[in-house]
Amino acid sequence: MVTTEKTSKIEEVRKEADRLNSAAETADQLMKAITLLLQEKMLKYNWVGFYMLEAGASPPVLVLGHYQGAMTPHTRIPLNQGICGAAASSGKTVVVDDVSSDQRYLACSLETKSEIVVPIFVSGKVVGELDIDSHFPSAFTFEDRELVEYCAQLVGKRLESV
Ligand code: SME
User: Which atom belonging to ligand 1 lies closest to the Cα atom of 112?
Assistant: First the structure.
């Protein structure tokens, strides 16, 4: 796909995310809708899911929420494990172009080649994250990162307004 096609695709998906945000009655409904949207429309997004920090857990742990894609053995991830743990504990987006060369990576599927994990904030604190795996190496460009961060922000704002 040439860049201009990808740009317009991403713009279309971003607008659809806005529509889903308006239609969703709860943050939970929005999260489910975003997993469906991203996995269906973004062809390289093979696994799309949310991990949310368990309320009151000590030590903190990420718990798998809505997802689309293959079942994963990683339903609970401590913050000192995985790319998921790294994103939640640093509060920064993590993009891994080649998961086989990242020692933090917790394997879900042998087919996964690259991954992006974007934290979700409520009142400046990480409450969870949006995790996407791809069967293609280096699937997540700067534009993908902006799209996934946009979706994570929509969820953060919905959670903040509860
Ligand atoms: N690969 C993640 C674990 C979750 S699966 O991708 C669904 C990680 O390394 O944290």
Answer: 6
